[in-house]
Automatic annotation (TrEMBL):
SUPFAM superfamilies: Cupredoxins (SSF49503), Cytochrome c oxidase subunit II-like, transmembrane region (SSF81464)
Cofactor: Cu cation
Cofactor note: Binds a copper A center.
Recorded superkingdom: Eukaryota
GO cellular component term of the entry, any: mitochondrial inner membrane
Keyword Repeat: no
UniProt source species: Phytophthora nicotianae (Potato buckeye rot agent)
Cytochrome oxidase subunit II copper A binding domain segment(s): 81-219
Transmembrane annotation, as ranges: 12-33, 53-74
Name of the protein this chain belongs to: Cytochrome c oxidase subunit 2
Chief location: membrane
Listed InterPro entries: CcO_II, CcO_II-like_C, CcO_II_C, Copper_CuA, Cupredoxin, Cyt_c_oxidase_su2, Cyt_c_oxidase_su2_TM_dom, Cyt_c_oxidase_su2_TM_sf
Keywords on record: Copper, Electron transport, Membrane, Metal-binding, Mitochondrion, Mitochondrion inner membrane, Respiratory chain, Translocase, Transmembrane, Transmembrane helix, Transport
Lineage: Eukaryota, Sar, Stramenopiles, Oomycota, Peronosporomycetes
Protein backbone atom coordinates (compact mmCIF):
# COMPACT_ATOMS: atom_id res chain seq x y z
CA UNK A 1 0.00 0.00 0.00
CA UNK A 2 2.89 2.35 0.75
CA UNK A 3 4.19 1.87 -2.79
CA UNK A 4 0.76 2.67 -4.24
CA UNK A 5 0.56 5.89 -2.20
CA UNK A 6 4.06 7.01 -3.22
CA UNK A 7 3.32 6.26 -6.88
CA UNK A 8 0.09 8.24 -6.63
CA UNK A 9 1.99 11.24 -5.24
CA UNK A 10 4.54 11.08 -8.06
CA UNK A 11 1.81 10.72 -10.66
CA UNK A 12 -0.06 13.72 -9.27
CA UNK A 13 3.01 15.89 -9.93
CA UNK A 14 2.85 15.12 -13.65
CA UNK A 15 -0.92 15.55 -13.74
CA UNK A 16 -0.74 18.98 -12.10
CA UNK A 17 2.05 20.15 -14.41
CA UNK A 18 0.16 18.98 -17.51
CA UNK A 19 -3.08 20.56 -16.31
CA UNK A 20 -1.39 23.90 -15.61
CA UNK A 21 0.35 23.89 -19.00
CA UNK A 22 -2.83 23.03 -20.94
CA UNK A 23 -4.85 25.69 -19.10
CA UNK A 24 -2.12 28.27 -19.76
CA UNK A 25 -2.06 27.39 -23.46
CA UNK A 26 -5.84 27.65 -23.70
CA UNK A 27 -5.77 31.04 -22.01
CA UNK A 28 -3.04 32.28 -24.36
CA UNK A 29 -4.92 31.07 -27.44
CA UNK A 30 -8.20 32.63 -26.30
CA UNK A 31 -6.66 36.01 -25.41
CA UNK A 32 -4.00 36.45 -28.13
CA UNK A 33 -5.51 34.80 -31.19
CA UNK A 34 -8.46 37.14 -31.46
CA UNK A 35 -9.84 38.61 -34.66
CA UNK A 36 -9.72 42.09 -33.15
CA UNK A 37 -6.00 41.78 -32.40
CA UNK A 38 -5.00 39.84 -35.50
CA UNK A 39 -6.83 40.96 -38.62
CA UNK A 40 -4.71 38.72 -40.82
CA UNK A 41 -4.71 35.09 -39.61
CA UNK A 42 -1.56 33.01 -39.65
CA UNK A 43 -1.08 30.74 -42.65
CA UNK A 44 1.43 28.38 -41.02
CA UNK A 45 0.12 24.83 -41.38
CA UNK A 46 3.25 22.77 -40.72
CA UNK A 47 6.15 22.92 -38.28
CA UNK A 48 8.52 19.97 -37.97
CA UNK A 49 10.17 21.24 -34.78
CA UNK A 50 6.98 21.81 -32.83
CA UNK A 51 5.57 18.46 -33.97
CA UNK A 52 8.67 16.67 -32.71
CA UNK A 53 8.39 18.49 -29.39
CA UNK A 54 4.71 17.76 -28.76
CA UNK A 55 5.23 14.12 -29.69
CA UNK A 56 8.44 13.39 -27.80
CA UNK A 57 7.57 15.13 -24.51
CA UNK A 58 4.30 13.18 -23.91
CA UNK A 59 6.11 9.97 -24.89
CA UNK A 60 8.85 10.64 -22.33
CA UNK A 61 6.25 11.42 -19.66
CA UNK A 62 4.42 8.15 -20.39
CA UNK A 63 7.67 6.19 -20.17
CA UNK A 64 8.54 7.90 -16.88
CA UNK A 65 5.16 6.86 -15.49
CA UNK A 66 5.14 3.36 -17.01
CA UNK A 67 8.47 2.14 -15.61
CA UNK A 68 7.61 2.47 -11.88
CA UNK A 69 4.03 1.44 -12.62
CA UNK A 70 5.06 -1.94 -14.04
CA UNK A 71 7.61 -2.43 -11.27
CA UNK A 72 4.90 -1.81 -8.67
CA UNK A 73 2.46 -4.08 -10.50
CA UNK A 74 4.83 -7.05 -10.41
CA UNK A 75 5.99 -6.39 -6.84
CA UNK A 76 2.39 -6.56 -5.61
CA UNK A 77 2.18 -10.19 -6.80
CA UNK A 78 5.47 -11.15 -5.17
CA UNK A 79 5.29 -13.19 -1.97
CA UNK A 80 8.49 -13.07 0.11
CA UNK A 81 8.97 -15.99 2.55
CA UNK A 82 5.63 -15.68 4.35
CA UNK A 83 5.49 -16.70 7.99
CA UNK A 84 1.70 -17.14 7.83
CA UNK A 85 -0.57 -18.54 5.15
CA UNK A 86 -4.16 -17.33 5.42
CA UNK A 87 -6.83 -18.93 3.26
CA UNK A 88 -9.98 -16.90 2.65
CA UNK A 89 -13.18 -18.58 1.44
CA UNK A 90 -16.15 -16.50 0.35
CA UNK A 91 -19.65 -17.90 0.76
CA UNK A 92 -23.19 -16.54 0.64
CA UNK A 93 -22.97 -14.39 2.71
CA UNK A 94 -20.03 -14.72 5.06
CA UNK A 95 -16.28 -15.30 5.04
CA UNK A 96 -14.36 -18.33 6.25
CA UNK A 97 -10.72 -18.18 7.29
CA UNK A 98 -8.13 -20.91 7.60
CA UNK A 99 -4.76 -20.49 9.32
CA UNK A 100 -2.37 -23.20 8.18
CA UNK A 101 0.69 -22.17 10.19
CA UNK A 102 -0.14 -22.65 13.84
CA UNK A 103 3.44 -23.09 15.03
CA UNK A 104 3.59 -25.57 17.91
CA UNK A 105 0.09 -24.94 19.22
CA UNK A 106 -1.68 -27.49 17.02
CA UNK A 107 -1.14 -29.84 14.12
CA UNK A 108 -4.59 -29.01 12.78
CA UNK A 109 -5.38 -25.80 10.89
CA UNK A 110 -7.40 -23.11 12.61
CA UNK A 111 -10.70 -22.60 10.76
CA UNK A 112 -13.51 -20.21 11.65
CA UNK A 113 -16.35 -18.30 10.01
CA UNK A 114 -16.85 -14.53 10.14
CA UNK A 115 -20.40 -13.18 10.06
CA UNK A 116 -21.65 -9.63 10.24
CA UNK A 117 -23.12 -8.69 13.62
CA UNK A 118 -26.75 -7.69 13.24
CA UNK A 119 -27.78 -4.15 14.07
CA UNK A 120 -29.85 -5.24 17.09
CA UNK A 121 -26.77 -6.88 18.62
CA UNK A 122 -24.43 -3.91 18.25
CA UNK A 123 -23.08 -2.12 21.30
CA UNK A 124 -22.78 1.65 21.49
CA UNK A 125 -19.84 2.86 19.40
CA UNK A 126 -19.62 -0.18 17.15
CA UNK A 127 -19.80 0.28 13.39
CA UNK A 128 -23.01 -0.66 11.61
CA UNK A 129 -22.51 -3.11 8.70
CA UNK A 130 -18.80 -3.47 9.59
CA UNK A 131 -18.79 -5.32 12.93
CA UNK A 132 -18.09 -9.05 12.71
CA UNK A 133 -18.17 -11.85 15.25
CA UNK A 134 -14.67 -13.10 14.36
CA UNK A 135 -11.86 -10.85 13.19
CA UNK A 136 -8.84 -11.82 11.17
CA UNK A 137 -5.83 -11.24 13.41
CA UNK A 138 -2.35 -10.94 11.90
CA UNK A 139 1.03 -9.79 13.21
CA UNK A 140 2.64 -6.54 12.13
CA UNK A 141 5.91 -6.34 10.19
CA UNK A 142 5.40 -9.86 8.88
CA UNK A 143 4.96 -11.22 5.37
CA UNK A 144 1.59 -12.94 5.06
CA UNK A 145 0.43 -14.98 2.07
CA UNK A 146 -3.30 -14.78 1.40
CA UNK A 147 -5.04 -17.43 -0.71
CA UNK A 148 -8.56 -16.48 -1.80
CA UNK A 149 -11.33 -18.62 -3.26
CA UNK A 150 -15.12 -19.03 -3.08
CA UNK A 151 -17.47 -21.91 -2.33
CA UNK A 152 -20.45 -20.93 -4.46
CA UNK A 153 -20.55 -17.64 -6.39
CA UNK A 154 -18.07 -14.90 -7.26
CA UNK A 155 -16.98 -12.66 -4.36
CA UNK A 156 -14.23 -10.07 -3.89
CA UNK A 157 -12.09 -9.72 -0.76
CA UNK A 158 -11.32 -6.00 -0.59
CA UNK A 159 -9.66 -3.88 2.09
CA UNK A 160 -9.03 -0.41 0.59
CA UNK A 161 -6.78 0.87 3.39
CA UNK A 162 -4.39 -2.05 2.79
CA UNK A 163 -4.50 -1.77 -0.99
CA UNK A 164 -6.00 -5.24 -1.35
CA UNK A 165 -8.79 -6.22 -3.70
CA UNK A 166 -8.86 -9.71 -5.18
CA UNK A 167 -11.67 -11.77 -6.65
CA UNK A 168 -12.75 -14.96 -4.90
CA UNK A 169 -13.68 -17.33 -7.71
CA UNK A 170 -15.19 -20.82 -7.23
CA UNK A 171 -12.71 -23.47 -8.34
CA UNK A 172 -9.83 -20.99 -8.54
CA UNK A 173 -7.20 -20.05 -5.97
CA UNK A 174 -6.01 -16.44 -6.22
CA UNK A 175 -3.02 -15.23 -4.27
CA UNK A 176 -1.85 -11.95 -2.79
CA UNK A 177 0.24 -10.83 0.16
CA UNK A 178 0.01 -8.51 3.14
CA UNK A 179 2.67 -6.63 5.06
CA UNK A 180 1.22 -4.30 7.69
CA UNK A 181 3.63 -1.92 9.39
CA UNK A 182 1.42 -0.57 12.17
CA UNK A 183 -1.09 -1.94 14.62
CA UNK A 184 -4.74 -1.16 14.01
CA UNK A 185 -8.08 -2.38 12.72
CA UNK A 186 -8.72 -2.31 8.97
CA UNK A 187 -12.18 -2.63 7.44
CA UNK A 188 -13.36 -3.86 4.08
CA UNK A 189 -16.35 -5.40 2.34
CA UNK A 190 -17.19 -7.76 -0.48
CA UNK A 191 -16.74 -5.79 -3.70
CA UNK A 192 -18.43 -8.14 -6.14
CA UNK A 193 -22.21 -8.41 -6.38
CA UNK A 194 -22.91 -11.89 -5.03
CA UNK A 195 -26.61 -11.93 -4.23
CA UNK A 196 -29.26 -10.31 -2.09
CA UNK A 197 -27.00 -9.95 0.97
CA UNK A 198 -23.95 -8.75 -0.93
CA UNK A 199 -23.79 -5.58 1.19
CA UNK A 200 -23.64 -7.55 4.43
CA UNK A 201 -20.26 -9.28 4.10
CA UNK A 202 -17.84 -7.06 6.03
CA UNK A 203 -14.15 -7.83 6.43
CA UNK A 204 -12.21 -6.89 9.55
CA UNK A 205 -8.44 -7.37 9.84
CA UNK A 206 -6.74 -6.55 13.13
CA UNK A 207 -2.97 -6.08 13.10
CA UNK A 208 -1.24 -6.66 16.43
CA UNK A 209 2.29 -7.20 17.65
CA UNK A 210 3.83 -10.64 17.15
CA UNK A 211 3.61 -11.37 20.88
CA UNK A 212 -0.10 -10.49 20.99
CA UNK A 213 -0.70 -12.54 17.86
CA UNK A 214 0.84 -15.64 19.42
CA UNK A 215 -1.32 -15.18 22.51
CA UNK A 216 -4.44 -14.77 20.37
CA UNK A 217 -3.56 -17.81 18.27
CA UNK A 218 -3.01 -20.00 21.31
CA UNK A 219 -6.25 -18.90 22.97
CA UNK A 220 -8.21 -19.24 19.73
CA UNK A 221 -6.98 -22.78 19.11
CA UNK A 222 -7.64 -23.89 22.69
CA UNK A 223 -11.13 -22.36 22.63
CA UNK A 224 -12.09 -23.93 19.29
CA UNK A 225 -10.80 -27.39 20.16
CA UNK A 226 -12.33 -27.38 23.65
CA UNK A 227 -15.72 -26.09 22.44
Amino acid sequence: MEGIINFHHDLMFFLIMITVFVCWMLFRVITLFDEKKNKIPSTVVHGATIEIIWTSIPALILLTVAVPSFALLYSMDEVIDPIITLKVIGSQWYWSYKYSDNLKFSDEPLIFDSYMVQEDDLAIGQFKLLKVNNRVVVPTNSHIKVLITASNVLHSWAIPSLGIKLNACPGRLNQTSMFIKREGVFYGQCSEICGVNHGFMPIVVEAVSLEDYLIWLKNKINFDFNA
